[in-house]
Design a protein that fits this description.
244 residues, alpha+beta, three-stranded antiparallel beta sheet, 2 helices, disordered N terminus
Length: 244
């Protein structure tokens, strides 16, 4: 016997099918085993581990080198010294070289050199006088001391000039102190002193002529002047005394 489905039954069946289709729409697809397929997890960039660069150890700044203070010295005030006391101070003033017996004041063919010990130097410039004399060589009764000379000779002094000198406070050769050039029969005597002029009787009475000459010093020789106010003196001999 055949059975026929009537209209209401078809409607119910259609509705059930639609309901089933509606429930499955938009739902995750089922896996073949009937379980939902797991979603693939993508790691977040923030979750990734970023390795930090290796830390550089801090470098400490080098300690500054200790500063060594230069020694300080007290200078000598010469402003109120009498000429004799000033002369005694300058004569015994030692040289900066520290050598035994060295003098801070020395004059030669290059001029008056001033190189005082730092512990005894004057506070300011010191005013001195330079008396310069011509030394004229003529035939006479004093031996020249020159090998090969066939006759005796004598000399006489003639004042050339008496300029003032300013000594210090800087070291070096004092301006205006260079002895004049010599001639064949004329030399010069330069005397550095303090106070009034030096008497001619205090000048050397015996001058020996050198046997050789140096290019720098022009044969200049230290000589002694008897005055207590004389600080230094040099004799630049004639350039050709043999022919005088």
């Amino acid at each position: 016997m055949h059975h026929r489905l009537r209209g209401p039954a078809l409607a119910v069946l259609a509705g059930a099918l639609l309901a089933t289709a509606g429930c499955s729409e938009g739902s995750p697809a089922a896996s073949p085993s009937g379980s939902p397929a797991p979603a693939s997890a993508t790691p977040s960039p923030s979750a990734a581990t970023v390795s930090a660069p290796p830390s550089t150890p801090a470098t400490s700044a080098p300690a500054p080198a200790p500063t060594v203070a230069a020694p300080s010295y007290d200078c000598v005030d010469t402003g109120a010294m009498a000429p004799e006391k000033l002369a005694a101070y300058l004569v015994r003033l030692k040289s900066s070289s520290g050598s035994y017996g060295s003098k801070a004041l020395k004059i030669d063919g290059d001029g008056l050199k001033f190189e005082p010990d730092p512990s005894e130097r004057p506070c300011g410039a010191v005013e001195l006088t330079l008396s310069r004399y011509w030394v004229d060589l003529t035939p006479g009764g004093v031996s020249s001391g020159v090998p090969g000379s066939s006759r005796d000779q004598e000399f006489r002094y003639a004042l050339m000039d008496r300029p003032a000198l300013s000594l210090g406070p800087q070291d070096g050769i004092v301006e205006g102190s260079v002895p004049p050039g010599s001639l064949s029969c004329r030399g010069s005597l330069s005397v550095v002193h303090v106070g009034p002029e030096i008497a001619e009787d205090d000048l050397p009475y015996d001058l020996q002529m050198p046997t050789s000459f140096s290019a720098a010093g022009r044969g200049a020789m230290d000589v002694t002047v008897k005055s207590d106010r004389a600080l230094a003196a040099t004799f630049v001999p004639p350039s050709a005394p043999q022919g005088c």
